[in-house]
Design a protein that fits this description.
alpha/beta
Length: about 240
């Protein structure tokens, strides 16, 4: 049994400049089994064929919200409603688990300072720990965990690769290196143009969850649809990490 963990973010991971209207960084991970991912990938391609007549369109949260680029068709209210209904049906129908880590950058720098650990690396560590918990909870014979991230730049990717290797060699406070090794955990980086549907889902999921973290009382219909997919134990959503 092979597992995929697709990861994308919402917000800027930098600490030097913080947007007061959006002061958090959210890293979102989507866990699929190989079988469930293939079913989801095909379903999302069918949606792309329906609205753009090919599978080359890359779904991007900001462009969809702004109705920019190929998503100008969503200015038509009927098309927009139909698109969201179809996408929501795919989300509800297909099997995957959401893991997120949200860091309030203002509170974080007040507590730890501007030279503290990289918030992307902290969040990646959390997602990797929770991914192991999910696999072990399922009690299936998992042989591989492939972590897939979108490329950000050579410098950033190299730094993150080094952090990943440290986790593999040392483990974390909660997950030993042997537990990571048991599932042959490895990481890969892909370009947005590679058109990977799992990464596109992570991008689409990250924003409404970040908005929920910022204001859990505000009406957020997208989050309500995603809520049942978040890794939970009983009534507690363990896949919804907030820090500090």
């Amino acid at each position: 049994m092979k597992y995929f963990l697709f990861i994308d973010e919402s917000g800027d991971h930098g600490l030097s400049k913080v947007d007061p209207a959006f002061p958090i960084f959210t890293l979102c991970g989507i866990i699929f089994t190989q079988e469930s991912y293939e079913a989801f990938r095909l379903a999302l391609n069918e949606l792309k064929l329906k609205y753009w007549e090919d599978t080359n369109t890359i779904l991007h949260s900001r462009d969809i919200r702004k109705c920019e680029g190929p998503f100008k068709i969503l200015f038509n209210q009927q098309v927009k409603e139909s698109f969201y209904l179809d996408f929501n049906e795919i989300v509800e129908k297909h099997a995957f688990i959401i893991l997120t880590s949200s860091i309030d950058k203002i509170a974080y720098t007040k507590k730890y300072g501007y030279l503290s650990d990289d918030v992307y690396e902290i969040s990646l560590s959390f997602l990797m720990e929770r991914a192991i918990y999910v696999i072990e909870k399922n009690q299936e014979r998992a042989s591989e965990l492939q972590i897939i991230l979108e490329r950000r730049g050579n410098k950033e990717d190299k730094k993150l690769e080094e952090h990943f290797q440290k986790l593999m060699s040392r483990g974390t406070f909660y997950v030993s290196k042997n537990r990571f090794a048991k599932y042959n955990t490895h990481i890969s980086f892909n370009y947005k143009k590679d058109n990977i549907n799992g990464l596109q889902l992570a991008d689409l999921v990250a924003y409404p969850i970040a908005r929920f973290i910022l204001d859990p009382v505000k009406h957020n219909p997208a989050f309500e649809i995603l809520k049942s997919k978040i890794y939970s134990k009983g009534n507690k959503m363990y896949g919804l990490k907030k820090h500090p």
